Amino acid sequence: MTLPEAYKSQVQHIQESSKFKLHSGVREPAPFPGYTLITPPAEEDTPNSAFYTQLQSCQQSLLQLPVNNDLIVPVPSVSFHLTLADLIWDHAYLHACEENPKFIEELNSCLRETFEQYKQSRLQATQPIFWQMLGLIVMPRAIGVCLVPKDERSYEEIIQFRRVIYQNPKLMALGIEQHYHLTAHITLGYFGEISPELDRIKFSTMLSELNQQLPLNLPDFLIHQVQLRRFDNMVQYYRQPHCPSLDL
């Protein structure tokens, strides 16, 4: 996904993201509510501060590419994060809350119980979980950087965590299901206005050249905690007092 051929192919299919809407000439986050399991956002993730500082520089380099100013809508760097498991969002989330007034309470309770069970199952695991940035990744409606595990154990820890979430009967009963395989990434921006004049071949070449220039010495990304967070859009992730977290 970080090869020049992949950029060339993916750029042909990029689309304007519905996560941002034009309002008085400015793109603002569109309503998109739900719950997710993520690493702490950058502004709160002290152990990864050096990683995020360099990632912010990568974002700035991306935004300085000579393309239409509205092509890439940046994500605020303070909200950079890695999603470990999508839970429920948009219409499915609103429907669940409508059908079950205790949905949020039950979701919190179930995840707290699941986290505790998972913690007991991995008491022997004392080594930190490290992933590494591999390069830029182009998705249909967004662009970011993808991460790969530093070693096999770091991979297995995260895959096992996702199994515990998505194969949990209580969570499944609440409407939580796995929609995507894991493509570990941190989103840098979403696609805005895609002009008919956009030279997609040239744009893919720019991305490929930028990817070659990205620093190879970024610090490892430490996955040390996963948190249940509520979001109203794609830039703000709230940690409510009753939301559980899991130290890894």
Extract low-pLDDT stretches: none
Q: End-to-end distance, in Å? A: 28 Å
SSE sequence, one letter per element: HEEEHEEHHEEHHEHEEEE
* CATH architecture type: Alpha-Beta Complex
DSSP E strands, number: 12
Q: Which CATH first-tier class would you pick?
A: Alpha Beta
Q: Number of domains in the coordinates?
A: 1
Question: What is the percent of helical residues?
Answer: 25-40%
Mean pLDDT: 94
Spatial shape = globular
Structural class: alpha+beta
- What is the H level of CATH, i.e. the homologous superfamily? Cyclic phosphodiesterase
Report the biggest beta sheet as strand number plus sense, adding barrel if it closes.
5 strands, antiparallel
CATH topology: Cyclic Phosphodiesterase, Chain: A
Q: Strand content of the residues, in percent?
A: 15-25%
Any idea what the radius of gyration is? 19 Å
How many individual helices? 7
Description:
By secondary structure, the chain is an alpha+beta fold. It has one domain: Alpha-Beta Complex (Cyclic Phosphodiesterase, Chain: A), CATH 3.90.1140.10. 35% of the residues lie in helices and 25% in strands. It has helices spanning 4-11, 49-63, 90-99, 103-121, 152-166, 169-173, 200-213, and strands at 20-23, 26-29, 34-38, 72-74, 83-89, 130-138, 142-149, 185-191, 221-222, 225-231, 237-238, 245-247. Strands 3, 5, 10, 11 and 12 form a 5-stranded antiparallel sheet that branches. Strands 4-8-7-6-9 form a 5-stranded antiparallel sheet, with helices on both faces. A two-stranded antiparallel sheet has the order 1-2. The model has no long low-confidence stretch (mean pLDDT 94).
